[in-house]
Structures are given as structure tokens and as C-alpha cells.
Amino acid sequence: MHGLVILLPYMEQNALYQKWNMSGASGNFLGSAHGYSIGSSTLASPDAVASGNAALSATLISTFICPSDPGPQTISPSSYYSPDLGSTGIIATKTSYDFVTACAGVAYYNYWAKSSTGTRYAFGENSTTRVTDITDGSSNTLAMGEQTLALYNGTTSSWAYAGWVSVGIDPVGAWNTTYPAQGLNIWNYNGTQNPVGTRASWYNAASLHTGGANFVFADGSVHFINQSIDIPSLTYLCRSADGMVIPNPPQ
């Protein structure tokens, strides 16, 4: 289940939240079936189709869509990206906003728990971060960021479940070959220059706002971060307890 589901009651979507089967699966994709998610991973029962959760993912929630982004809002039936793995033709809907997590989690089950305290982001698969754990300060730690609906390498994630490489946004991720290798608003994937609005790879933070992207910080505030920010500072903002606080965080 995507963490955004838990927020539904707080954004006038309680009726949708009440339909969710919390004991069932929200998506049927298992990375271990494709050689990833190293470690033990099992699908909850009932599965996403039987639980009814897969069908709910077709609900378009306008709050989760950036009004400045004209990109595709839905996910075509797919054995990798759909909650039902394409078996019943469900067309899930996307989100323009996702949690800031380490992209390396795509290859390991419960990667967050295996990471050292100093390198952890506030969020990650089955993370247990409390506000008191964010010792760098909630105003110095990223919680969520923007992602464009159009994506070259992958498919922008749904608000409801995790599909293939749906691990969130990593502003300093370097899993694939992009130009530049890290940062915000990256449109070039392995030499393929995409138009502005089609981000390069599945973990890139990007928006159609000129010069940068908006982020939610752990204190709940929203700030625009310029794409010219240096990578060390962006890294410190991603990590919640590395002891490295940048002197002038975005205001």
C-alpha cells in the first residue's frame, strides 16, 4: 500500500479510505519475481484484485495531480506497473507527489531498515521514523517531492500501490545513466534528450515549474528548491539524521 492512502481521511477522501481493505494487498507486483527485492517478500492475502483495492486505484484524486502538468494521468494495463498486473484491465491513476526515499531500495526488501542511521531518509519501505528521530531538524529534512506525470524510463507511480520501480523520489539517486547524473529536473536519459516535462528516470524529482521543484519538508512546510542546488546540500536535505545541516535551507 502506498503511504498516500493513509492520508486520505485528512483530505476529504474518508469515503474512499473506508473502502480500503487494509489486510489485503494493494498491488500484486513482487520484485522478487523479477530478480529484485533481495530478501523475503510475500504478497498479502487477499490479493489486490480480490481485496477490491486494485479497482479503487482507478480513482482520480485531483489533489494528487499538479495543475501545471498536462502529462498522462493514468497507467495503461501492464504486467509491471498495474495493480492487477494487467490481468483485469484496471487503469490506475498517478500522483504528481511522492515520498522522498532512497532509490537503492528498488533492489532490496526492507532496504530502509538495513541502512545506517546516518544515511537513512525519513521514508522508505516499512520505515518507522518518528519526528524525534529526525535529529537534523524537521525544517532541514525532505519528506515529499514533485514528479512529472510523463516519464521516459519507467512509469510515474500511482498514489495507491507500488509497482515496478515505484519506490518514491530520490533527488540524489544515481541508479541509471542520466545527464546530469544527479539533481533536479533531469530530462536526459543515457543520451536521449526528452522534452521538458518528461523526466529521465523513475526516481528523478522534476516539475514543470521553471528552475526547480517543490518539496514538502518534514515540518509540513512547502518550499521551492532551485535546480542549481549543489548535490552535497541536496543529499544532506534527503537524510534525516546525518548531522549535516545546510546553513541556508530553502525558505
From TrEMBL:
UniProt domain DUF1559: residue ranges = 6-230
Protein name, as recorded: DUF1559 domain-containing protein
